[in-house]
């Protein structure tokens, strides 16, 4: 039988569903957990962990074992797609990811594709599914094309994505080719995750908020619609969660035009407003501020209850508005879980 999370993402709940919201946290498998830090110290760097299927599966399951979340999110990274496309990838301590050569100075045809790099990720999914209880949903993911492209073009992250935005303005044909290639690879990658056992997938568009409305239509909505349509054609029962961070007023258009099954809301979105503008019955996910979780206290639990109340009349997955912070105290996570699970619908 599907778990509560999967039922919620499909927009339906069984008659005997427990009167609580399903819950998972973005980046729930990570550096705030002492067991993760211990394993990473033993195994080495981040990318080595991602490609070590046994270790990656153990990390994926760590927050399930500790907290009993309703969903297990694959331990991996959005930049696996460009790495499989042949772009060099490394994670430097204190500097974040570096991709080489950056596409501002190179072209896709310079890269030698390495689709075998997906294999370890698929194996991680399989290993997790072997160990998960049937009531815990296995979640796969990929980066959305715009966000992935910002790293591929600039070779690193940036605050305003100016290098990528400039390329999109100066040479839209070349940039379209980059986005199209990412779309194609993301479809392959997500289908592989689903075939390995992922029951739902999330598209992370962490830098969607940097675009004006017409560019948002072109570089966020259209590529995500293409990916979602392809997943629906091959795996119609698999929910797709769209997470366009920073979309703001463009959220309604994203929900209407991409075809995603559920919308992830970042912490800047007013839950009452989102409930009023999103399609009736469309599942939502979110949207507690990760910094509020880090701070803890009564304000944390009060805000959690407010979010739960705002979405009482639609399918809702409780989550953060972005990834959990590295220095988040474990006891704050425990307090949040208690507040969510003890809240009556």
Summed up:
With 345 residues, the protein is of the alpha/beta class.
Descriptive labels:
TIM Barrel; 345 residues; alpha/beta
Describe the structure.
The structure is a single chain. The chain has 345 residues and is α/β, with parallel strands linked by helices. The protein has one domain: Alpha-Beta Barrel (TIM Barrel). Helix content is 49%, strand content 13%. Strands 1-4-5-6-7-8-9 form a seven-stranded parallel sheet. Strands 2-3 form a two-stranded antiparallel ribbon. It is globular, with a radius of gyration of 19 Å.
Topology:
Layout: H1 4-9, H2 34-43, H3 46-50, H4 53-67, E1 71-73, H5 80-84, E2 88-92, E3 96-100, H6 117-131, E4 137-143, H7 145-154, H8 162-170, H9 172-196, E5 200-205, H10 213-234, E6 240-244, H11 251-258, E7 262-264, H12 271-277, E8 284-288, H13 290-295, H14 298-310, E9 316-320, H15 330-341
Parallel strand pairs: 1-4, 4-5, 5-6, 6-7, 7-8, 8-9
Antiparallel strand pairs: 2-3
């Amino acid at each position: 039988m599907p778990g509560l999370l999967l039922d919620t993402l499909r927009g339906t709940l069984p008659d005997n569903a427990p009167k609580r919201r399903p819950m998972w946290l973005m980046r729930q498998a990570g550096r705030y957990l002492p067991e993760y830090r211990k394993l990473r110290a033993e195994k080495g760097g981040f990318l080595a962990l991602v490609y070590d299927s046994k270790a990656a599966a153990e990390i994926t399951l760590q927050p399930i074992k500790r907290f009993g979340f309703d969903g297990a999110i694959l331990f991996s990274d959005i930049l696996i797609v460009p790495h499989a496309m042949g772009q060099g990838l490394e994670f430097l301590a204190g500097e974040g990811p570096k991709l080489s050569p950056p596409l501002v100075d190179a072209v896709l045809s310079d890269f030698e594709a390495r689709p075998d790099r997906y294999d370890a990720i698929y194996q991680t999914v399989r290993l997790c599914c072997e160990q998960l209880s049937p009531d815990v949903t296995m979640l796969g993911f990929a980066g959305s094309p715009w966000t992935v492209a910002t790293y591929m073009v600039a070779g690193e992250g940036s605050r305003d994505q100016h290098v990528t935005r400039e390329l999109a303005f100066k040479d839209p044909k070349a940039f379209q080719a980059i986005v199209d290639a990412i779309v194609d690879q993301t479809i392959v990658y997500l289908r592989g995750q689903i075939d390995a056992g992922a029951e739902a997938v999330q598209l992370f568009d962490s830098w969607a908020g940097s675009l004006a409305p017409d560019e948002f239509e072109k570089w966020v909505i259209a590529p995500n619609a293409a990916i979602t349509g392809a997943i629906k054609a091959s795996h119609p029962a698999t929910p797709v969660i769209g997470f366009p961070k920073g979309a703001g007023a463009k959220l309604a258009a994203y929900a209407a035009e991409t075809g995603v099954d559920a919308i992830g809301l970042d912490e800047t979105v007013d839950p009452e407003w989102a409930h009023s503008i999103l399609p009736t019955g469309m599942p939502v996910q979110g949207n507690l501020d990760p910094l509020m979780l880090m701070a803890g206290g009564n304000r944390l639990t009060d805000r959690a209850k407010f979010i739960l109340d705002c979405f009482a009349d639609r399918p809702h997955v409780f989550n953060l508005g972005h990834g959990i912070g590295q220095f988040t105290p474990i006891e704050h996570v425990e307090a949040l879980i208690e507040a969510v699970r003890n809240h009556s619908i």
